[in-house]
Amino acid sequence: MTLPDVDFGTDPLPDLHDILSRLRERYRVAHVRYDGGTAALILRHGDLAAAFKNDAAFPAEQAYQRFAMPAQGRTMQCMPAAEHRGHRELVAPWFSPASVAELAPDLLEPLATRLVERFAKRGEADLVAELARPFPFAVIVRLLGLPAADGATLARWAAGLLSHRLDAARAVAARDAFTHYLAPVLAERRAHPGTHPANDWLSRLVAAEIDGEPLDDESIYSFVRLLFPAGSDTTFLALGNLLHAVVAHPELHDRLRGDPEARRRAVDESLRLDPAVALQPRIAGPGARVGDSEIAEGEWVLFGIASANRDPEVFDAPDEFQLDRVRDRARGSGSALAFGAGTHFCLGSHLAHAELEVALDVVLRLLPGLRLAPDAEVTARGAIFRGPRKLPVRFDA
Fold first, then answer.
1. Where are the domains of the chain?
2. Given CA atoms 381, 65, 347, 108 in this order, what sign does their dihedral have?
3. Alpha-carbon span 135 to 175, nearest angstrom
4. Which residue, 82, 74, 41, is CA-closest to 343?
């Protein structure tokens, strides 16, 4: 085992990128400690892009069935390919670029503006606690047509749903509380169809059918239990990483403030440099291998997204934040893997990207002179889910 004293599942790993860089120089696959056991960590971009697209050798559903299904239920992530496809096709139009674009002026921008205006006259804030964490969660609450006043309680349960790997009892308790909360809401939607806004996602699920059959209650509960943590917790980490990168490069602020295309590139570069899901667990299927290395069926595999996104064989100066990064197609695909690839490419990627762009625009527009607070030490931590938990800043009130 490589680095037996480092557990990639439980350790905070503030130096994760340095560790991955050293491993990537020596290995295509490194056997490392993960949650007290072992896992095969795939480190290089080409190998990981191929693994993402090889559902037979690296099936996603087996891992999700192990660490997510007990808390979230049988979500589309836990389904084999054919069944996954049917459920994904049902909701995919809600996450399309066109649908997401319609959300920006009426939902995303007002929510982000309201959050930033709460502290804009104060001259200082913690951008994680006061924007990055509440913003994507408020978006999900609104999309489902749930009361905004219940947001804090829902946020606590959503965090619990993601804890099954390390705290199964907490995750199951969150699942039960979520279900108890949703049951009367769902019953009301079924009893009184058409009394809520047409774009209320919960009402859409009540009216939806797959192969001519309506969704039962548990299918809807599972979708909501997936949507809350997947749509809010990973996005809050990604937003924290983006805002930290932008605060660290004040020379870019004027350009970002006046150029939507520059903001889009900033989001892309931040997702490459510091993906919220740094390592993604899978379980090896039959015939799993990387190069000459065979991976035993049933062995845990870690998809090293954070390592692949800084692979020098694909990205020049991979540890630098470069707004004008040019993809070198001759050296590799040049595509960062923050949202995965293949069948399980992140369904919410367009929504997440839009939330990051909107939040960045609002912050730069309403917080002139944005800078890191004196003596602040901002550190991303975690290897499965990764991002800063605090981002203290100052600005001109």
1. 16-394
2. negative
3. 22
4. 82
* pLDDT at residue number 86: 80
Q: Are residues 206 and 196 in contact, defined by beta-carbon separation less than 8 angstroms?
A: no
CATH superfamily of domain region 16-394: Cytochrome P450 (1.10.630.10)
For the chain, give the secondary structure using H, E and C.
Answer: CCCCCCECCCCCCCCHHHHHHHHHHHCCEEEEEECCEEEEEECCHHHHHHHHCCCCCCCHHHHHHHHCHHHHCCCHHHCCHHHHHHHHHHHHHHHCHHHHHHHHHHHHHHHHHHHHHCCCCCCEEEHHHHHHCHHHHHHHHHHHCCCHHHHHHHHHHHHHHCCCCCCHHHHHHHHHHHHHHHHHHHHHHHHCCCCCCCCCHHHHHHHCEECCEECCHHHHHHHHHHHHHHHHHHHHHHHHHHHHHHHCCHHHHHHHHHCHHHHHHHHHHHHHHCCCECCEEEECCCCCEECCEECCCCCEEEECHHHHCCCCCCCCCCCCCCCCCCCCCCCCCCCCCCCCCHHHCCCCHHHHHHHHHHHHHHHHHHCCCCEECCCCCCCEECCCECEECCCEEECCC
Query: How many CB atoms are located within 10 Å of the residue 197 CB?
Result: 8
Segment-wise mean pLDDT, segments of 10 residues, the chain, 397 residues:
95 97 97 96 97 93 85 82 81 92 94 98 97 94 90 87 85 92 92 72 88 90 87 90 96 92 95 96 95 94 98 94 69 74 87 97 97 94 95 95
Kindly report the backbone phi and psi dihedral angles of residue 92, in degrees, each rounded to the nearest multiple of 5, phi listed first. -55, -40
Is 389:128 a contact under the CB 8 Å cutoff?
A: yes
What are the C-alpha distances in Å from 103 to residues 133, 195, 363? 19, 21, 18
Q: How far apart are CA 369 and CA 250, in angstroms?
A: 8
